[in-house]
Design a protein that fits this description.
The chain is mostly helical and about 110 residues long. It has one domain (about 25-105). The chain contains six helices and no strands. It has helices at about 5-10, 10-20, 50, 60-70, 75-90, 100-105. Helix 1 packs across helix 2 (about 10-20) and helix 4 packs antiparallel against helix 5. The protein is elongated.
């Protein structure tokens, strides 16, 4: 689609994009997403990152990581990577906080 046609079809959006006033900040980056890819036919099972995203403090996140390692859900290398990301990038580097009833509102595809 050409710029002119885009401006004609979407004048408000074009104006926002050109002015740069409607910017959105990204609050987190999920670095270990390959383990969370599921198809719609699979039953959803939360992973370590899903549990970390429910935490309010870094101490809670470390407790989750240690627990998941103890259960064998993650190995020592993965636990170290999670803790390193937590220490260097902070709790919200795993994504925004998942509040109570998150999946009732947003489903399991996030």
């Amino acid at each position: 689609m050409s710029d002119g046609k885009f401006r004609t079809n979407y004048p408000a959006l074009s104006k926002e994009l050109e002015s740069g006033t409607a910017k959105v900040s990204v609050n987190g980056v999920r670095t270990m997403s390959e383990k969370t890819d599921t198809t719609s036919t699979e039953r959803f099972l939360p992973d370590v990152v899903d549990y970390i995203r429910r935490c309010d403090t870094m101490d809670q996140a470390v407790e989750i990581i240690n627990y998941m390692q103890k259960r064998g859900e993650i190995n020592t290398k993965e636990a170290k990577e999670f803790k390193s990301q937590l220490k260097s990038n902070g709790l919200r580097s795993f994504g925004t906080k998942k509040e109570t009833d998150h999946y009732l509102h947003f489903g399991t595809t996030e």
